[in-house]
Amino acid sequence: MPLQDVTSRVRPALAGFEPYDPAFSPCRINLSANENTHPLPPVVTEALRDAMATTPLNRYPDPLGNELRDTLATWHGVERASVMVGNGGDELLFNLLFAFGGPGRTLVVAPPCFEEYKNFAKMCETTIVEVWRDERDFSVRADAIVEAACDADLVMLTSPNNPTGDLLDPALVRRLLDETNALVMLDEAYVDFAPASASLVSWVADNPRLMVLRTLSKAFALAGLRCGYLIADPAIIDVLAAIRQIYSEDVLAQAVANRAVALRDELVPVIDGIVAERTRLSQALAGIPGVRQWPSSANFLLVRLPNAAEVRARLRDEHSILVRDFSYAKGLADCLRITVGTANENDELIAALRAIVEGE
Ligand SMILES: *Cc1c(COP(=O)(O)O)cnc(C)c1O
After folding, report:
1. For ligand 1, mutation pick of 114, 120, 164 (most atoms within 8 Å of CB)
2. Assigned CATH topology for domain 42-265
3. Which of 1-5, 115-119, 160-164 is the least confident region?
4. Which of 49, 121, 198, 289 sits a CA distance of 20 to 30 A from 106?
5. What was the pLDDT predicted at 275?
6. The whole model's pTM is what?
């Protein structure tokens, strides 16, 4: 008998999910996914190529990636026991909800924010409480978040936030740790583009309920490699170590990530260049009539402009420039997210946007 209606056999909590679609289409210039498009110093590219070429593929990976954990631990001034690596930050987010969410558990988020928090929470049958940001300036409603967190198991906040670009006030994290019992996950995927003082990694040692998520996908230009990591209390790391897919971080990812992190000082000029381009892009956008933007501490800018979805389609179809459309999303009407590219990419984006907005 043919297998019919397989959807009715899917676990109810997982019914109705669709494959992730970043709405990618091949374009000359891709500023849609917050990747690092800047060229890396040759000393870095050569070291990464060497790591790939010399890593044997016939042996299983070290399940926990201890060499990489040690390199990350040294960087951040923590012990190996406080670091867990994952197949991108996404895997760690899923595992956090797998471990600490579930039926009867509650997650607090502050949207508009990274959609995966909610998706993974749903998959793990976790109740989601959304404390929406102020719709005009996207500021978080701190009192409401603390109040919601008092009855919650987990809070996930993002600094800088994707897609709004703002840094979170550390005072809110302080309040969540002092006034609630929730586990607090601070997602610092973009913190490398913010002032060094923005990271709260140094708080983890004294605050066992605080976890900080980082990734090599953005500043380190390794989105395709899939490597993220969490810094947290060893008790939390032990739980994640026990429930993870045992070989999710493959040998190439471990070897390349290890080299990249060891060479992080070489990337500082690249990151400084992106930050400088962010300022320049922002100033250029400010000169285009009708384009509103919000201050960003990340490698992207959120803009609002009339007919955003149409503008995005014309950038793609007439100029082969891809940016991210958020105009369909709640709270983000007529919003586009533009990754900060190279100077040339940004110049082309500005010229194209100007041509569309001002009528060619
Ligand atoms: C990109 C991103 C991540 C992690 O991405 P990975 O590629 O899975 O490491 C996590 N959080 C936010 C907010 C992001 O934008």
Report:
1. 114
2. Aspartate Aminotransferase; domain 2 (3.40.640)
3. 1-5
4. 198
5. 98
6. 0.97
